[in-house]
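PROTOCOL LOG
Step 1. Enter all chains and additional molecules of the complex.
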Amino acid sequence: MEEGTLESPSKCAVTMDGEDTDPFQWDTREGCQVRQILDRVADKWSLLVIALLDNRRLRFTELRREIDGVSQRMLTVTLRQLERDGLVKRTVHPVVPPRVEYELTPLGGTLHSTIRSLVAWTEAHQGEIAAAREAYDERVGASA
Amino acid sequence: MEEGTLESPSKCAVTMDGEDTDPFQWDTREGCQVRQILDRVADKWSLLVIALLDNRRLRFTELRREIDGVSQRMLTVTLRQLERDGLVKRTVHPVVPPRVEYELTPLGGTLHSTIRSLVAWTEAHQGEIAAAREAYDERVGASA
DNA sequence: CTGGATCCGACATGATACTG
DNA sequence: CAGTATCATGTCGGATCCAG
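Step 2. Run joint prediction.
Step 3. Record the structure below.
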């Protein structure tokens, strides 16, 4: 594997003394799992896969078709990561034309709802953000 | 600006017919703001900055010190993006030693709480994920 | 059909040096 | 202090070819 792999786990928080769990430090713990998991979860393709797999079982090709923008390589990589993290279950049917199905694990299911709330925030405020950007760009453009 | 800039806005969802707003399609809309905003919000440094700025006003150097792992360049870029998106407010005091302070906007505040829930999920399940990874790696290593 | 392995270009990020 | 500009580089992602 060339990417997304963690070489130095350096697990943290899990067995921490409790003093470095400050509300402002949850993210400062760089080598920590949190930071890494967050990156994976927030990943473009991961998000799509998790969303599409909600209460469904899909085959590789089906996923590829639905997502469309994804390359076969990234879909494979993404699915492997999600499988490794225990968020997605991969089932291989030993038949002549290989048939592999993917589905969310219970853990993956809980993540799905959490993600939805983040997406909900985004959808709810994209108008404000767009407006803010326009205003900002105008300000900058004016001074330039 | 060299990065993070959106060349083809191709705004979507905001003014959509309503048929492509399927629960499974919120993320398929690639050119959509949602996808882009999500990337920004989930960004490593953005997350840190937003967390640190919660109910505080910090100077550039202060932020840099607290985050520590960040390069001065990325901090600048990140702050600019957040400012442009209306999530962070930048205040410049025209004094001899330049004094610039950053703080969350109300919008940024709402985002903060949303992010916290995502982080909460991550913290709550990092143990399960770690276990899943170990199991997976063992499985793979065994077959290899 | 479902991927594994490679090659490679694009882009994000970090380090460094310079400025108001 | 608070950046901007430039250069170097590592990583990610896409395209391709190959295999079970």
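Step 4. Note key features.
The two ends of chain A are 46 Å apart (CA to CA).
Residues 62 and 68 of chain A are 10 Å apart (CA to CA).
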